[in-house]
Amino acid sequence: MADLSPLPELRFAEVPATSRLRYVGDRFCYMEAGRVDLPPVLLLHGIGANSLHWRHQLAGLADRFRLIAWNAPGYLLSDNLRAETPSCRDYADALNDLLSALGIDGFDIVANSFGTRVAQCFAYHRPGRIRRAVFTGTSISHGMSPRGARARRRGTGAHDRTRRLWFRGPGSGAARFSRLGRYFGLGPANRARDQPRRFHAGSALYR
């Protein structure tokens, strides 16, 4: 069995005072590797995972980047959001709260699964902050039918529309994220309704 890459220790950041009423507590937990003067890269985990998901990236890229693997609200030792069914905007604001606590403005992002939804929400509500993005295990968009999902896998239909929005539209990466956000229904009106309490934190973004 191959040796596992070492993990950095958990760190904690205080939720900004202006946002604290939205949380059940006052702290985020995260992992960090790399010097603080290196370009920042945010690592966003999926549902059922946490910052440990990124152990190999934290070990392998720390010589080139300041890597920050967040634990979303309610994950590991990060305090949860008060909202029973957190919205797209709630998660975008939560990520912004962590970034504010760490003094980070512009950054690159690597995201998996649920983390890709958080990244899209952030790009839509906080345009211009994300410089580059890498997504893995992206989800089927809200409300997509099985037929649409099959079309996406074939490279036609909904997926072809997504490719046109990203590659052929004008503007910067932030503008392209904004177009994708509108296409996938990530506007302020996008809210999960009737979300059962038993759903894992973050599931609302998939409804």
Q: Give the tally of β-strands.
A: 6
Taking pLDDT < 50 over at least 5 consecutive residues as the criterion, the unreliable ranges are: 155-174, 183-201
- How much is the radius of gyration in Å? 17 Å
Fraction of residues in helices?
25-40%
Order of helices and strands: EEEHEHEHEHHH
- Bulk shape: globular
Describe the structure.
The protein is of the alpha/beta class and 207 residues long. The protein has 2 domains: 7-139, Alpha/Beta hydrolase fold, catalytic domain (Rossmann fold); 146-189, no CATH class. It contains 6 helices and 6 strands. It has helices spanning 55-60, 88-102, 114-125, 146-154, 157-168, 173-183, and strands at residues 10-14, 27-33, 40-44, 66-70, 107-112, 130-136. Strand 3, helix 1 (55-60) and strand 4 (66-70) form a beta-alpha-beta unit.
Which keywords apply here?
31% helix, alpha/beta, 207 residues, 17% strand, 6 strands, six-stranded mixed sheet, 6 helices, Rossmann fold, single chain
Task: Provide a brief overview of the structure.
This protein is of the alpha/beta class and about 210 residues long. It contains six helices and six strands, in the order βββαβαβαβααα.
Describe the protein's topology.
Elements (H helix, E strand, L loop, with lengths): L9 E5 L12 E7 L6 E5 L10 H6 L5 E5 L17 H15 L4 E6 L1 H12 L4 E7 L9 H9 L2 H12 L4 H11 L24
Parallel strand pairs: 3-4, 3-5, 5-6
Antiparallel strand pairs: 1-2, 2-4
